[in-house]
Design brief:
The chain has twelve helices and 18 strands. By secondary structure, the chain is an alpha+beta fold. Strand 4 and strand 5 form a beta hairpin. The structure holds zinc ion.
């Protein structure tokens, strides 16, 4: 199949042999510690791509006609036209230049310019204009839509350090409950999920920026590898009567006003972040990014939320299930994998607040979340099988 493509190109090059392309249009493939890259600058020069880069966040965007891509230095995944493409190697910088992993760069050029026939000539990526959109080989189409196995779970204990989160009656702090529940989850999953790595974003009382929580998870994505992101929180209300637990997935359209205010409460953590313009940061860059997240990830997140909520409802019978909801949580924006945020109960409710402080209840919540995660993985693996 590859040989055929190269043949087609050389044939086309002979047929067209236009002086402008000269049969030699190509980009240098550069090697960085054994891995292959294409310089973004070279792509911009050759194809007229436009790009923007946020130096502080080390994130950038690439634009061409109606197409767009989003990348971050250090991540092995790039979003191209709302779809996630993964590589074995991360986007990196060399002498200040942004270097895109070869396989992702090749995919990007194919998507941005379907009329180009692309091939590889030794240390060059060469292309020729066929005048007609290239038809993707069936195998490649499958690669684009294929699912990657769940190889890791990231447990994100909400708040920490100088950010206590919500405060309950008697001064109990959200950050302590979330850490304890998260460590419980880690213990259970390590025992039950062989072959899947379990990571805690924090395992002690420390402050972690929202973007570092997201980055912690995203950096673990690689070609053929997917993960789950579970952010653990407890809720607060001015009404001490309100109780119950709920599971959220990211959406710009909150379920209702209550969901909207829960997200607003959680998003307040950015006041603790050092950067003075952090408000701008989340409202601008990550907002666009959140909107670009694939509908596939959102679908999977909704499924994960359903499994987790059901899991908790089985192990926590004392309090009511408030159901699966959607809202715009900053910590879920930009997570490039199925991601949910669990509000494990109301710390401001006298009875539930007391429960949330107890080891037994924390263990029950963790057990429920784990049952949900395992249920999701089972369903997910079934989906992979039927897809292939
Ligand atoms: Zn919280």
């Amino acid at each position: 199949m590859i040989a055929k493509r190269i043949l087609n190109i050389s044939l086309l090059a002979c047929l067209l042999s236009s002086p402008s392309s000269g049969g030699d249009a190509g980009l240098d493939i550069k090697k960085i510690s054994g891995a292959e890259y294409i310089s973004l600058y070279d792509m911009m020069k050759s194809f007229g791509y436009e790009s923007s880069f946020d130096v502080f966040m080390q994130k950038g965007r690439i634009y061409f006609k109606s197409h767009h891509a989003a990348y971050a230095v250090g991540l092995s995944a790039v979003i191209i036209d709302g779809k996630l493409y993964k590589s074995d190697n991360p986007v990196t910088r060399m002498n200040g230049e942004i270097m895109i992993p070869f396989d992702i760069a090749r995919d990007m050029i194919r998507i941005f310019s379907p009329e180009l026939a692309i091939s590889r000539d030794d240390s060059r990526l060469v292309y020729a204009d066929t005048g007609a959109p290239e038809k993707l080989e069936p195998q490649e189409e499958k690669r684009y839509t294929g699912k990657d196995r769940i190889a890791f779970v990231v447990i994100d204990a909400g708040h920490g350090g100088k950010d206590p989160g919500a405060i309950g009656k008697g001064g109990s702090r959200e950050k302590d409950v979330t850490l304890s529940v998260s460590r419980n989850i880690e213990g259970i999953l390590k025992e039950k999920l062989g072959g899947i790595k379990i990571h805690l974003v924090r395992r002690d009382d420390r402050f972690v920026n929202l973007s570092d929580r997201t980055g912690f998870a995203n950096r673990r994505l690689k070609k053929g590898v997917n993960g789950l992101f579970i952010s653990v929180h407890v809720n607060a209300s001015i009404s001490p009567k309100i109780s119950g637990y709920e599971t959220y997935f990211l959406s710009q359209n909150p379920t209702n006003d209550e969901a909207r205010s829960t997200a607003a409460l959680e998003n307040d953590v950015i006041v603790f972040e050092e950067r003075r313009d952090s408000g701008k940061k989340y409202n601008d860059v990550d907002y666009i990014e959140a909107r670009m997240i694939t509908t596939q990830i959102q679908k999977e997140s909704s499924l994960l939320a359903g499994s987790v909520q059901k899991g908790i409802s089985k192990s926590v019978r004392k309090y009511k299930s408030r159901g699966v909801k959607k809202a715009d949580f900053y910590v879920l924006r930009g997570v490039l994998m199925p991601a949910v945020l669990v509000e494990a109960g109301y710390i401001t409710n006298l009875k539930e607040g007391r429960s949330l402080k107890s080891r037994e209840h924390q263990a029950a919540v963790a057990e429920g979340i784990c049952a949900g995660i395992m249920d999701f993985i089972k369903k997910y693996n079934r989906m992979i099988k039927t897809k292939k």
